[in-house]
Structures are given as structure tokens and as C-alpha cells.
């Protein structure tokens, strides 16, 4: 094992512990695949999607991070263990929490590639 895989395993174990304590939230990660299809009869465009149920740690941004330009006061920070999310995230994707769809504003990965960190916003 390398240090990177050790850290990934530790993060995965932390997510399991946090879930056991009831601190994670069950969400649906909606991965948008392909290009939209347009139905000329209904005049509606639709995207092909695949849903992934995952556990997410959801927090607020610290006050010093909120600039009300790129990070709004209502934005949330969401973290998913990398091994729990099959597709590579995209800004076209969405996250559904308690039937409310959130846009993904920003995506990054921690240096050990152990978790995805999202900035999400209600539309």
C-alpha cells in the first residue's frame, strides 16, 4: 500500500463511522450523461441521467470563505468518499437532498484523491 491508498482507506473508514453516528445524509447523485435530446412535438429537451444513492457529509462554509460572489451564504459544502461515487463528477450533474435538487457550483478533490468536495446551491 502507498500513503495515498492508506489515506483513502482512512477517509472511507471515517465516512463509515460518521454514518454510524448519524452525521451523514443519504442523497441521490444525479449524473447527466450525453447530450440533451429534443422532442419537437413537445418542444422539451431532456438529459439522460443515472442516479447514484450515496452517503454525504454536508456542512456549511466558514464565514471567512463566504464572499457572496463565488460562495454565497446559502451554499453548502458537501463531501463524498471517492470510492463511493462511480462516475467522475461534472458541473452538469446535480445532487438531490430530501427531494430538493441542488446545483453543483464547484468540484474539487482532496490531495489524496480520497474524497470529492462539492460546493452546492439550491437553484
Describe what you observe in this structure:
The protein is mainly beta and 123 residues long. It has a single domain (3-121), classed as Thrombin, subunit H. The chain contains one helix and six strands, in the order αββββββ. It has one helix at residues 3-20, and strands at residues 25-39, 44-60, 76-81, 94-97, 100-109, 115-121. A six-stranded antiparallel barrel has the order 1-2-3-6-5-4. A hairpin with a 4-residue loop joins β1 and β2 (44-60). The chain is globular, with a radius of gyration of 16 Å. The model has no long low-confidence stretch (mean pLDDT 88).
Short description:
This protein has 123 residues and is mainly beta. It is built from one helix and six strands.
Describe the secondary-structure layout.
Layout: H1 3-20, E1 25-39, E2 44-60, E3 76-81, E4 94-97, E5 100-109, E6 115-121
Antiparallel strand pairs: 1-2, 1-4, 2-3, 3-6, 4-5, 5-6
Amino acid at each position: 500500500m502507498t500513503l495515498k491508498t492508506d489515506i483513502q482507506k482512512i477517509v472511507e473508514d471515517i465516512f463509515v463511522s460518521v454514518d454510524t453516528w448519524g452525521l451523514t445524509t443519504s442523497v441521490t447523485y444525479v449524473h447527466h450523461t450525453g447530450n440533451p435530446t429534443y422532442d419537437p412535438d413537445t418542444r422539451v429537451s431532456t438529459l439522460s441521467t443515472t442516479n447514484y444513492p450515496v452517503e454525504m457529509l454536508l456542512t456549511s462554509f466558514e464565514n471567512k470563505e463566504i464572499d457572496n460572489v463565488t460562495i454565497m451564504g446559502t451554499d453548502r459544502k458537501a463531501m463524498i468518499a471517492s470510492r463511493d461515487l462511480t462516475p467522475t463528477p461534472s458541473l452538469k450533474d446535480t445532487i438531490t437532498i430530501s427531494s430538493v435538487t441542488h446545483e453543483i457550483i464547484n468540484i474539487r478533490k482532496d490531495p489524496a484523491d480520497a474524497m470529492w468536495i462539492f460546493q452546492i446551491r439550491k437553484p
